[in-house]
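User: I've been going back and forth on whether these two constructs are worth ordering. Before I decide, could you fold them both?

Assistant: Sure. I'll take them in the order you sent them. The first construct and its structure tokens:
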Amino acid sequence: MRSFTLGNMAEGLFFTFGSSLRCSLWQAGSSDRLLCAEGLAEAEKCGYHFSLRDKENLARWFVQLKDLNQDGKLAADLKKHKLDASIDLEIILPDGFPMEPPFARVLYPQLRGGYVFERGGICFEPLTPKGWVPSMTLPALAIAIKGILDYGEVRVAGVGNKATRTVPHYTEEGARKDHTAISASHRGGESSTYGSIKHYSS
């Protein structure tokens, strides 16, 4: 925790929270909204599902994107490989959230093309410091990522382990390396396209 000060001000108590505490408070409120009956019903309607694999860690979310475009190439690939019509993601919140962007990566299946890098990193401007908007909610982010995967040129490249729904080389470390290259390119000014990183080699 970076800072926590409590001062007596003329009109009452004034709190200054460090970013870690702000993030903790946000996470507690957000998890309640995402996991309550109303939040789950909204998620079902919009085609996404949030869950916590570790209920003690509110910074790490498992996200499943459902209800994909049935006429799209991604849905066709999933069907061809006899996979569920869904994409698994992980979203991790940094200490500085919501002022800093979350980190998101693909978990399953193995995807290629469009906005997905070799190790599961996602090329999407709102996931970079340049493009992130603190008012964006996690459900809105999930829907936006679903859109770029579902309607882009993203294809299934492999099925990994169907039983555990994992891809061996899709690691957090690898995806963060992808993200570093993505963020560097966005800082370079080509923020709205795959642009200069389309030839990036992992």
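The second construct, handled the same way:
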Amino acid sequence: MAPGLARAHRGGHRLFWVEPGAPADQMNTMPAHGIASILIVEDDPRQLRLYSRALRGYKVTCVSTASAALRELEAARPDLIILDHVLAGGELGVDFLPRLKAAAAHIPVVMISGTLDIAGRLQALQGPDSAHYMLEKPVDLDELERVVKSAITECGLGETVRVLQSLERAEKIEDSDPERRFTERLSRQHSLLNRLRGTSEKPNISLLARDYAVSRRTILRDLHDLVQRGQLDPALDPSDAEG
């Protein structure tokens, strides 16, 4: 087991957490509430051991099914969910995404799969009930650590943009594909999120539309999407006022 981690069993779930005496440089903190917590949904003990090495310093809870994950979410809200696609009992992670997001819309999800094809990965990354990032097995632990840090601090939107852009560079998304337009929309939303971070005033829709060379309706939809995904304060959504 990784240094600074302890383990126990409760109700058939494997639980890992950071011990108070763990070295300070192993602690990954959130400004608002101390050590960041991660819920891992994975049924392979070997993968869990690998993940625990990369996630030293986080408070980590592990369950083997998406059903168990939903029960965990009733008790506590993690800062991040890592969701494997193929789980125990024949469950598929992608099928549970809508339920997980319904239970905790604001929590970013990193999905891991060795079986999903390009179309399946794109589907998992699109829509209000989507994962924020997709990693392929075998998972590179350095990449996992980087993605986890980014997902917790940025709520994952930038990572979603980057993975779709990587598919474009690999020429797996054609210029005319809806996926390219989806990538452009996410990139714009990521920029909007960074631009509005820290403000308490409703945005100037006309100004944003000019800056991004899109219609006011497009900006309104982008802001509404960000609110629906739990990434933007609902008070900044001008949809009702715009009417």
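Notes on the second construct follow. The chain has two domains: 5-155, 178-242. The first strand starts at residue 5 and ends at 10.
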